[in-house]
Design a protein that fits this description.
The protein is mainly β. It is built from two helices and 55 strands. The strands form twelve sheets. It has a 17-stranded parallel beta sheet that branches. It is rod-shaped, with a radius of gyration of 47 Å.
Length: 624
């Protein structure tokens, strides 16, 4: 027996069997997630034993959301190793935290909007926010007040949450009314005047009508205006109108108290012809026409003779109530019992009652008349006698008898003129620097071919206590209100043109006379219901008045000063916040100052100052 010693080397060359499984992990509130090799190991084995199990990546963040490939390495105790692949799915299931705040918005042009950023008040997420949205995000005049909105916050991984907030919409719904009236004074055109008003509106728009506060309407119907305020909110107002042209002073071109007589070839081109007396008469003689669209004849007794045409007859007296008040000359002598003294050829005073049927005659009993009804002027030295062919400018307001010679040219500059009587010679031209009211005590007579107020065609209104006569070939553009007769003559070779409204006890157009409306309403002093009254000495010593027209103004407006002072004056324009928009110093020689071309739409306060005299007026400017 012998023994030999040998070394037996045992080798383990068998790799372990690595097995891995996919895992899903969730990000926490800090955006972090992790896993372990143990979690991924899926029962790896070895013929001996496993020493280590190692995972290639165990920590994850927001950038790893989704599937991540990892490697599991298994090593046995003898250093043999093997690997297996797995997928680690990282998920973000944490919703963002939505935080909202209340906001306030103001309507403009009837609308307002918000953004999510305005409502967001620091919303956050464990990863990051991808999108903010808010609903609703637009508002109109129907949303004035508090409105609940929802803020939606969505993170980059599609998680979302919401928060609510309140949106205060600032605005107001305007109110509006429509008032109905007639055109003032002697304005003509046959219109009913609708005026829209609102405490807050800055613009108005009539359906099928103008974009102004005032609408002139000429037919029955329902009229609708839309008023818009500074927020752009609107309201509609409606007015039902019953239109009857014959009840409107502005519809007429001729009104007689007792009688109207249109003799041969007289044409009324627009407007109506009426008589107010319940027993009055209208006679349309041969070849005369009252047939143009919109014309009419209204009186209790209408007679239309050979070859004359009247398109519309209304066999009722013209309403006496539509007549404007007669503004008499305060320098004429008259008694205090409702009588007006006429000239000495009457030797009586004519009393006016409402129906005109039974006018009586009463003798003048005032001792200072000495049995004569002639009116006297308190300033007898103010008579004007203009020579033939002379050119004269008259700046006086109060004067006696005015006689204008043949072919003379006379320009009156005052807006209010008081005179004893007026006679205008053949071919004379009588002009006016501005709109004017003339009050005449006695007779007014225009000879042949007189042009009266044709140069500037401003609005002139005459109140005449006695007769008013016009001879052939004349062109007269003026309203005339006579307490006696109006008599107008024309010829075929030299027809006469009368443009205005003519009111008299009797109105007679003899031959070839054409009547037209005077629709000039530019002047704001066309009525002068508050006329200047003389002081005890019979002289107007001081006066101060201002007008602004047009108002509302579309592009520009005019400031006109009427003052007895020759001092310069200032014009200051302020907006409603009190900010001075424009200031001007103007010389007294300027009759009219044009302003406002650069002004924005809105309401302004216009202050005119001359010495100690101050007048403040309100102006509305619109660009529509």
């Amino acid at each position: 027996v012998s023994i030999a010693i040998a070394t037996v080397t045992v080798h383990d060359n068998i790799n372990p069997t690595a097995k891995a499984k996919n895992v899903i992990i969730q990000l926490d509130s800090n955006g972090i997630a992790s896993t372990t090799a143990v979690a991924v190991n899926n029962g790896s084995t070895d013929n001996c034993s496993i020493a280590t199990v190692v995972l290639s990546k165990t920590s994850f963040n927001c950038t790893n959301v989704g599937n991540n490939n990892v490697v599991l390495t298994v090593t046995d105790v003898n250093g043999n190793s093997s690997t297996a692949n797995a997928v680690v799915t990282v998920q973000d299931n944490i919703k963002p935290t939505a935080i909202a705040q209340n906001v306030t918005v103001t309507l403009a042009s009837g609308a307002a909007s918000i953004t999510a950023a305005m409502v967001n008040n620091g919303s956050f997420d464990n990863c990051s926010i991808a999108n903010l949205s808010v609903t609703p995000n637009t508002f109109s005049c129907t949303n004035i007040g508090n409105n609940q909105v929802t803020l939606t916050v969505t993170d980059v991984n599609g998680n979302s949450s919401t928060a609510t907030a309140s949106v205060n919409v600032v605005g107001a719904i305007p109110t509006a009314i429509i008032s109905q009236g007639v055109q003032p004074g002697f304005s003509q055109g046959g219109a009913i005047v609708l005026t829209a008003s609102s405490p807050t509106a800055i613009s108005y728009n009539w359906m099928n009508g103008p974009a102004t506060a005032i609408n002139y309407v000429y037919a029955s119907g329902t009229y609708t205006v839309t008023a818009t305020n500074s927020y752009g909110c609107t309201v509609n107002a409606n007015k039902v109108v019953t239109y009857n042209a014959s009840n409107l002073l502005s519809s007429y071109v001729i009104i007689g108290r007792d009688e109207v007589e249109l003799e041969d070839h007289v044409v009324v081109n627009n407007g109506g012809v009426g008589v107010t007396s319940s027993c009055g008469e209208i006679e349309i003689e041969k070849y005369s026409m009252v047939s143009a669209p919109g014309t009419f004849v209204q009186g209790k007794d209408i007679e239309v003779k050979q070859n004359s045409i009247v398109s519309t007859r209304i066999n009722l007296a013209t309403p006496y109530s539509i007549l404007p008040p007669f503004l008499g000359n305060p320098y004429c002598n008259s008694n205090s019992n409702g009588y007006q003294c006429n000239h000495s050829h009457h030797n009586s005073c004519n009393y006016y009652n409402n129906n005109g049927c039974n006018n009586g005659h009463n003798s003048c009993s005032n001792s200072h008349h000495n049995g004569n009804c002639n009116s006297n002027n308190n300033s007898p030295n103010a008579n004007k006698n203009i020579a033939q062919n002379a050119t004269v400018t008259i700046t006086d307001s109060i004067m006696g008898q005015v006689v204008i010679g043949k072919n003379a040219t006379v320009t009156f500059t005052s807006p209010r003129i008081y005179m004893k009587g007026l006679e205008v010679g053949d071919g004379a031209n009588v002009n006016f620097a501005q709109c004017a009211v003339i009050k005449v005590c006695n007779h007014v007579k225009f000879q042949k071919n007189v042009d009266f107020n044709k140069l500037n065609s401003v609005l002139v209104t005459m109140y005449v206590d006695d007769k008013f006569e016009v001879s052939e070939g004349s062109n007269v553009e003026a309203n005339v209100y006579s307490r006696d007769e109006i008599k107008i003559k024309g010829k075929s070779s030299t027809p006469t043109t009368m443009k205005g409204l003519y009111i008299g006890d009797e109105v007679k157009a003899e031959d070839y006379v054409n009547f037209y409306w005077n629709t000039n309403t530019v002047c704001s002093n066309n009525n002068f219901k508050s006329a200047f009254i003389a002081d005890e000495s019979g002289l107007i010593k001081t006066y101060f008045d201002v007008t602004i027209y047009p108002n509302p103004a579309v592009n520009t407006f005019n400031v006109r000063l009427f003052s007895s002072s020759s001092d310069a004056f200032s014009i200051d324009v302020y907006d409603l916040s009190g900010k001075l928009i424009e200031s001007r110093n103007v010389t007294s020689s300027t009759l009219n100052e044009e302003m406002g071309a650069s002004f924005a739409e809105g309401m302004y306060i216009v202050k005119i100052t001359q010495g100690e005299n101050v007048k403040t007026l309100r102006l509305v400017k619109t660009n529509k």
